[in-house]
Specification:
single chain; about 375 residues; alpha/beta; Metallo-beta-lactamase, Chain A; 2 domains; 5-stranded mixed beta sheet
Length: about 375
């Protein structure tokens, strides 16, 4: 009886602690006066980064090629290209309208990008956008979707649409994680933050390190304004694209080729090629000057995709990455070398185990 009573008291204490934590989090969220990001111009960037002439690693729109054809490619660059500081693109047609390639991490940043589009391309307004094509379904490329007028067609792959639909119902989880992580990080900072780690018993340090990592990563995202993000207003593709399709907008074919490469970085990666200008928008198949993230993989498929890209293009092409500055074929080869090394190193670590496993399997027959 007494043990049962103690268990009941313990459960009540846990519930009371959880309720108090939730109340504190809600109070923190309501009362905190946070300054959200309005642009990427303030972000620090490496002075040693390799850049192409006329294509600085600076915030805002830039024309990718001065000698482009009738359809002019522009890149919207967000230094320093780290977590969720992604790039976007725009392909302007002769009449000034055009195709937007991806949105940004939140509706506010995306709305600012669209306001700057007209002056960057020689006049016009956000209504210049005739359609939006998405390279992949990661949040930093789709959460700004609602800043684009709802009647404008969205384009992408069937697999990307499935992943976006799955995220639509979980948008609140992202917001909760960011708020909770920021709250935890700010509280931990009051008591010394990471400096507390060596003071803990060694058995607790791995869990504490995981908590610190989670809290700091979410605190880094807290500057993005996710409050207006509506899960019901994530992209809904009017047309589903497949590899090799030429993109058509309002019944008008564009000299733009869609190239689906499958699950590599994300669950569905694609590239947008403009052959007449020799420009490719690669999405997150290219991270230039930033350590890449691989959600799907394996690394060998990334190497194969970049080999195919180099074979399909040439040394005079320009590539707009998902993160980092505009690059050339050497930049593509640099990322390829990274993943080739990663693949070889990981295979080397596993080779002994694979050999023993195969030997054991044969021996049992």
């Amino acid at each position: 009886m007494f043990l049962g009573f103690l268990a009941f008291v313990a459960r009540c204490s846990v519930f009371a602690t959880a309720a108090a934590a939730i109340c504190l989090l809600l109070l923190w969220t309501i009362t905190e006066r946070r300054e959200y990001f309005t642009s990427s111009c303030h972000n620090a960037r490496s002075p040693e980064l390799r850049l192409l002439p006329g294509l600085p690693f600076s915030c805002g729109w830039q024309r990718v090629r001065p000698d482009s054809g009738s359809f002019v490619p522009y890149a919207f660059i967000q230094p320093n290209g780290s977590w969720c500081w992604s790039n976007a693109g725009f392909i302007a047609s002769p009449d000034g309208s055009g195709l937007l390639v991806d949105t940004l991490m939140d509706p506010v940043l995306t709305a600012t990008m669209l306001r700057e589009l007209g002056p960057a391309t020689g006049g016009g307004a956000p209504g210049r956008v005739d359609a939006v094509v998405f390279t992949h379904p990661d949040v930093d490329h789709i959460l700004g979707n609602q800043a684009v007028a709802p009647e404008i067609p969205r384009l992408g792959t069937a697999k990307a649409q499935q992943d976006i639909d799955a995220q639509a119902g979980a948008a609140w989880k992202l917001k909760l994680c960011v708020e909770a992580g920021r709250f935890i990080w700010q509280v931990l900072k009051l008591f010394g933050g990471p400096s507390l780690l060596p003071l803990l018993p060694s058995a607790l340090q791995p869990r504490a390190l995981s908590l610190l990592g989670f809290a700091k990563s979410q605190d880094n995202l807290a500057g993005f304004n996710l409050k207006p993000v509506d899960g019901g207003r994530l992209p809904k593709f009017e047309s589903l694209l497949a590899s090799g399709d030429n993109i058509t907008v309002h019944g008008q074919p564009l000299p733009v080729r869609f190239w689906e490469v499958g699950a590599i970085h994300s669950k569905s990666d694609s590239m947008i090629l403009l052959p007449e200008s020799k420009v490719a928008f690669t999405g997150d198949l290219l991270f230039i000057g930033i350590a890449p993230v691989m959600w799907s993989g394996p690394a060998s498929t990334w190497v194969k995709a970049l080999d195919d890209l180099l074979e399909a293009t040439g040394g005079d092409w320009r590539f707009v990455p998902g993160h980092g500055p505009v690059t050339d074929a050497e930049g593509v080869r640099s990322v390829r070398r990274y993943f080739a090394y990663l693949h070889e190193a990981s295979w080397g670590d596993w080779y002994g185990f694979e050999f023993v496993f195969i030997w054991f399997s044969v021996a049992r027959r």
